[in-house]
Amino acid sequence: MQRRSLLKLGLGAGVVLAVAGGAAALLMKPGLHEDNKKLGEPARQLMRAVALALFDGLLPQEAAAREARLTLHLSQLEAGIAGFPPALRAELSQVLMLLDTAPGRLGLTGLSSDWAKASVAEVQAALQAMSHSSLSLRQQVYHALRDLNTLIFFNDPSSWALVGYPGPRTIP
């Protein structure tokens, strides 16, 4: 191969990669919207799937009550995220955006199904694999997802009865 042909090939490949990268950037949606304070729809589905996996057995069994509890949980989660410092919200938005893509979801969680279509057992298995991963990045993402959800869930007094906690005692 001549040097001129090699340069043309390199230039052509660079243009193709730049166009593909630009197209991918346009297709990716941030995890958080409105100044990184509201969950985007894909991030909402992700957090819903994680909440279902974490609190399976604690949530009401009746479908309407379960959906109402999940809706309340997601709105409380948004309120909690809105109180985070801007830099933390920006990082969380990036993680949620990455987990919303098929390669990011597969690479970090090992979950091949979309969050909205994954079963509770699939999400639980993915979370379990992340928690025991040898890669610290996978463990950090697991802890972020778990900690965000459990912090909000167990901070809500309406959740206390679901786990048998009577609430704080009054000190005489």
Features:
two-stranded antiparallel sheet; elongated; mainly alpha; 172 residues; single chain; 69% helix
Task: Explain how this protein is built.
By secondary structure, the chain is an all-alpha fold. The protein contains eight helices and two strands. It has helices at residues 3-27, 41-54, 63-82, 86-100, 102-109, 120-131, 136-155, 157-160; strands at 32-33, 38-39. A two-stranded antiparallel sheet has the order 1-2. It is elongated.
Question: What's the topology here?
Answer:
Layout: H1 3-27, E1 32-33, E2 38-39, H2 41-54, H3 63-82, H4 86-100, H5 102-109, H6 120-131, H7 136-155, H8 157-160
Antiparallel strand pairs: 1-2
Helix pairs in contact: 2-6, 2-7, 3-7
Order of neighbouring strands in the sheet with most strands: 1-2
Supply the helix-strand structural class.
mainly alpha
Distance between the termini: 88 Å
The secondary-structure element order is: HEEHHHHHHH
* Radius of gyration from the alpha-carbon trace, in angstroms: 21 Å
Rounded mean pLDDT is 86
Number of strands: 2
Percent helix, as a range, is 55-70%
Shape: elongated
Tally the helices: what do you get? 8
Strand content: under 5%
* Low-confidence parts: none
The largest sheet is:
2 strands, antiparallel
Count of the domains: 1
Short summary:
With 172 residues, the chain is mostly helical.
